[in-house]
Amino acid sequence: MKITVKITLILICFACSLVMHAQDAIVYDYRLDQKALNDSKNPIPSEIRNAPLFGKTINVFGASRARNNRKEVTDTWHCKLAQKYHMLYRNYARNNCCIAFDRRRERWSAPINEFYEEMDTCDYILLIGGHSDAEQIIKGKGTLEEFEEGYAKLLRGFVKKEPDAKVAVFTPWNIKNPPYPDITRIMVEQGRNFSIPVFNCATQSGIYVWDLEFARRYFHSYQDNTHLNARGHDLFYNKAEKFMLGL
Q1: Engineered SS bond to 220: which of 93, 130, 195, 227, CB 3.0-4.6 Å?
Q2: pLDDT band per the 50, 70, 90 thresholds, residue 10
């Protein structure tokens, strides 16, 4: 009887460890098997098959904007991109985490510039961030100088860990309140320093966070200036896709 109980407990602990490991990333494998790749009755369009994204692996980092704030990750533009180009998609984003600031004392997460090392190998790395760091600075729990240092550490880490991967960064939306403009400026400048393409969402996105009617239609709520809803992701998709294809 005791042996049975011990074996049961071991199996339960092993199962829990598997679940915890699975929770490190949300994974969707949209890659095609050999049969589907060679199916003459359902040929893959040439613009998909010949695209640089086709069949590749993408790792996504960020906070709730990348995680979709407890909504379905499959609603996001980056997950839809992975589905269209038959990619292996891993989303490592964590709600309320920062690029540079440690929030474990608040029972949230370590900064991305620490836990990025847990990722598996990939062809593309996508960082969507800056909002949580800006909010920490607003609360007096960090400075722009600390953000810049921590952000540079992350970019350096991406390049060192996955030197063959293509890295892309998406800044915060066009939020006028300090320190958002400076966060965006730093992300663009440091991206240039590391030869990493940065999509400036403040100037290039066509996402109008200051317009209440726009927010009602395309954000999770009219009071939200961060999280796009499914319609918002669809609206932004074409610009993001063009950028990603051009990496």
Answers
A1: 227
A2: very low
In the chain, DSSP assigns E strands to: 26-29, 57-62, 88-91, 124-128, 166-170, 198-199
Among residues 219, 170, 217, the alpha carbon closest in space to that of 196 is found at 170
What is this structure's pTM? 0.90
| Apex 158 CA angle, 153 and 159, nearest 5 | 100
Per residue in 22-65, pLDDT (tens digit) is 348 999 999 999 999 999 999 999 999 999 999 999 999 999 99
Q: Contact 60/27 with Cβ under 8 angstroms?
A: no
Instruction: Give per-residue pLDDT as tens, 123-168.
Output: 999 999 999 999 999 999 999 999 999 999 999 999 999 999 999 9
Task: Give every CB contact of residue 44 below 8 A, 6+ residues apart in sequence.
Answer: 32, 37, 86
Report the DSSP beta bridge partners of residue 205: none
Give the integer Cα–Cα distance in Å for 70 and 94. 10
| Cβ contact 178:186 at 8 Å | no
DSSP string, 27-76: EEE----HHHHT-TTSPPPHHHHTSTTTT-EEEEEESHHHHTTTS-GGGS
Question: What is the distance between the alpha carbons of residues 163 and 11, in angstroms, rounded to a whole number?
Answer: 38
Structure tokens at 135: 């909010």
